[in-house]
Amino acid sequence: MAETIKEAIERIGLIPVLRAKNKEQGLAVVKAMLAGGVNTVEVTMTVPGAIDLLKALKAEYGNDLLLGSGTVTSAAQAQATIDAGAEFVISPCLNLEVIAATKGSGKLSCPGALTPTEVHTAWKAGADFVKIFPCSAMGGASYLKALLAPFPYMQLIPTGGVSVSTAKSFLDAGARALGVGSDLVNLKAIEDGKPEIITEQAKAYLKVFEEYRAAKK
Fold this sequence. Notes:
The protein is of the alpha/beta class and 217 residues long. It contains 10 helices and 9 strands. It has helices at residues 5-12, 23-35, 50-61, 75-83, 96-104, 116-124, 141-148, 167-173, 187-191, 196-216; strands at 14-18, 40-44, 66-70, 88-90, 108-110, 112-113, 130-132, 156-158, 178-180. Strands 5-4-3-2-1-9 form a 6-stranded parallel beta sheet. α2 links the parallel β1 (14-18) and β2. The longest helix is centred in the last third of the chain and has 21 residues, at 196-216. The two termini are 24 Å apart. The model has no long low-confidence stretch (mean pLDDT 97).
């Protein structure tokens, strides 16, 4: 039986948040991450030409890259990114129309939420995962653990404050996957002509997951 997008995200465990300055920089970041074994990416709508970048990534890597869109705040945006190749749609906030549009197209929905009420509302609306953002501003892993106390069945992805050094604490708290930004998606490394920095950081993240899962067996 083929792996679902949801299963793939949990297996990979990492959603790099790509906020590149242009299409070329975005392509370079993804190439460097793939070299380190990380084969999923969230292209945010804040990237100039985000739709073109999604299309380019889909054309270049096909099924070798699990492609998603981020910072999606309207149903029209969600549909445009899905048409461009996004398999999952992530938002920084709770927008019921985005969830409905995403699910209506048969794709994975991960709306953003922060408070218990928002998290519960997102889940009841059909979210596959709920992105807890900005998690670091609320205490990081301890806040995630607090949310899961009354909602142990919910599948949460913290974003904000995730780094190689904090990743295990978020996993221990119950995160199903981790949204990671500049700690991995290092634009300066590309600007300095040192993509290998991203590649090595990608490997470091995957090592954290490997060690965490080995310890759980």
